[in-house]
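Encode chain A's predicted structure.
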Amino acid sequence: IITPDWKENVEAGVSGAPGLNVDGKTFFYSNSGPPGDYIGDSRLINFTTHEVGHIIGLTHIYDLYNQQYSATWDFMGATFAMTDLIGWNKFFLSWIDDSQVNCLSSTSTTQSIHLLTSVGSSTPGTKMVIIKLSPTTALGIENRRQTEIDKLKSSDEGVIVYKIDTTKVGGTGAIKVLSNLNKIVPDRAGNAVPLSTMTPGESITTDGFTIKVLKRSINGDFISISKS
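Encoded structure for chain A:
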């Protein structure tokens, strides 16, 4: 539903249950402002993209009740901060193929080296490493570079590490970025959110593993993963 203008009494967002019942069928719909208002306003463009994300099956991955911007690298996690999706959501949508993901188990003891190409580009190669911690939790590791969608400064690029918890419903922190939380960037609404990217020489130890960025190349970032 597209409304004629933005009003305080316009409730924007995708409807929840029970939805809209028409002719015996239930519809879940998006309610937003006029398309003309989006021109030149990146916040409104992001809002629409976020709502389309719901329509194709994505939930709020942030933690509304504790740390709202815990999943910065995704417009389903920080609507006004980022313009692309985090690797896990792309994998969920089958935009990243199984062959582009390296999987490790929690019992892995051998150090491994991985070249991660940008998760936002069509460059071939490994897009993600997923470390399975339990049947419902995992660590996700990916590389973010400047693309036509991810409009980043070169200083913002790097590797991010985050935790995935599939038991958590929308708005309770299903994805939480863990790396470099002191690296802050302002979003389009003026809020300070963690950028969290790691560059060569930086590392994080979490959930029994140490992930370190070794080297940057034209094709991507080399990382090492070892049992801590």
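The first strand starts at residue 13 and ends at 14.
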